[in-house]
Amino acid sequence: MWPMRLKRICLAFCVLAMTGLLFALLTLLASRNSSSIRLPTSLNFVGDESSASQKKQHPANLLHEEKDSDGARVRILCWVMTQPQNYNSKARAVNATWAPRCDGYFFFSSDTGNTKPTGLPLVSMKLVEDRDKLWDKTQAAFMYIYEHYLNDYDFFLKADDDSYIIVDNLRYFLRNTKATEPVFAGRRFRPYTKNGYMSGGGSYVLSRAAVKALVEKAFKKENNFCRKHGGAEDVNMGNCLENVGVSILDSIDEKGRERFHPFDAASHIDYANWPKDFWLWKYNYHPIKVGLDCCSSTAISFHYIRPVDMLTLHYFIYQLRAYGVSADSVRHGANGVPLASHSGVKGRV
After folding, report:
1. pLDDT tens-digit profile of 167-217?
2. How does DSSP classify residue 117?
């Protein structure tokens, strides 16, 4: 009996020993595998393609601390073209999403004399709202910037109240451009000017030196090249800047994809199905790419965005994250200063 019991004891001991050894081996393998996994601590930048070379060039949170070539933060003032009927819809959506990501911002509108909306940094002038008055408003806005904020910022973005701007990508795009260089950038169109002009609906940006040249050499001096009233706002701006020595800063990326967009993303992705006689085919300075190649992974602007879609875009860009990528707070980088409201702004006489 004892030999049989001894055999059973030995067998049980062997089973326990083998089980323990197997458990230890599995634990060791799991530990080694988990230690080799390195989840990213944050996104590199909005629209990152996650290539190894890009990760080296764009460390974590780079866009929130984007510096120019001299190591200083790229300071951007954004001004948004709006009107009283849009205060509680389009302007409100802009104010709740992308505008606070600029370093400073204000809305420019006509002055109705009514109670001003709460929460909107509003600068206004006496003007009847009309498409033919857009150029008057644009001139007045840049003259106001010249008089009050020219030396406080490096670049000045003009956008409509139905545009969505990825300010982080704008700051990234401008990182190697000096404010002392007289340049402007946007969606480059071909006709009407020698070197092209920027789409007003697609938004455009001017350097400090460009604003200075525009006001001092075009707006404040009598000339026959810079129109005072009426006409297409974006064409007028292109003509004025071209004649005062402001150069074009081309905004396409290294793959020839556009960064500034005069329509919403879906329209540009589906552009191959648009009529071949549609005006953009002949207006666009660069060959138009369609499908997912339509737009840069560091796109800056989209136009004709409804308020609800503006909130949706903001969610997708700043809040939604794929599993395994740490979330970026929607408030991070949204510390721009709402600039002081002001009424009675003067335009060109």
Report:
1. 999 999 999 999 999 999 999 999 899 899 999 999 999 999 999 999 999
2. P
Q: Which of 69-78, 117-126, 174-183, 241-250 has the lowest mean pLDDT?
A: 69-78
Cβ-contact 244, 212 below 8 angstroms: no
- Residues 6 or more apart from 249 whose CB is under 8 A from it? 177, 183, 184, 185
**Secondary element (H or E) of residue 198:** strand 197-198
How many angstroms separate the CA atoms of 284 and 235, rounded?
13
Instruction: Let me know if residue 68 belongs to a domain.
Output: no
What pLDDT is recorded for position 340?
85
Tokens of 272: 């191959």
- How many structural domains is the chain composed of? 1
Nearest to 305 by CA among 123, 130, 97, 102: 97
What CATH number does residue 108 fall under?
Answer: 3.90.550.50
